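Bug #77: duplicate submission created two jobs. Keeping one. Sequence:
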Amino acid sequence: ASSTSYKLVRADGTDAKATLSEGEKAFVTFLYFYHLLKGSKSDSGMTTDRIVVFDDPVSSLDSDILFIVGSLIKGLFNEVRNGTGHIKQIFILTHNVYFHKEITYNTKRKDVAMKEETFWVVRKPGLVSKICKHETNPIKTSYELLWVEVQKPDRSNLGIQNALRRILENYFKILGGIEFDKLCEMFDGKDKLICKSLCSWVHDGSHHAHDDLYISIDDSTVDNYLKVFRRIFDKSGHTAHYKMMMGNAFVKDPAVVADP
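Kept job's structure:
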């Protein structure tokens, strides 16, 4: 082998090339890219100013490696902030909420984004991706993300069913003492059927095979589900929680207020 070649070996000295897992391959690729950022492909060693994009760098990685990758990227953030090195701007794209929380954690950020950073969410409601800027960090917890789906006016009719079910499951099962069957008796007609439908999803549990089956529903049906979803919180005495989680998307409903 030439002096510019290398190979990966296991702790016992055996060649690891044929036995690398997907996670190991992803981590090695990341480390190669990471060190290349501080060097050059050419023998001359010439380096230039650069903009760096990390596209979902923690795919297939376990939690320990995710933490290492996050720490290394946060180190690059500091270099950009301090003006050291050749990296002038960094973009991070990820689907992983835990990774996002890891690399965006900063005690200096009080609420809104700091002057040197921006937060964006990429959505694909149809065949076109839309990029929405957020003044604050849009990623909170997985529970809050479910409520984001309820808040959105351009929500997915397909995904909203699972979001409503998971919210009810998380909130009321953790809270305890709520009997959904009795709750449904407080509704009449079509609303009662919708309540029973929502509650049946909760009873199925989050790991039931039913999870991957969806009924094709239109906008008007979704509106009915959202209305009953809201009234479940009202009738159980938890309107305050609903209002808090809906944030700026909360709309006072006279019909609900007048409900006995």
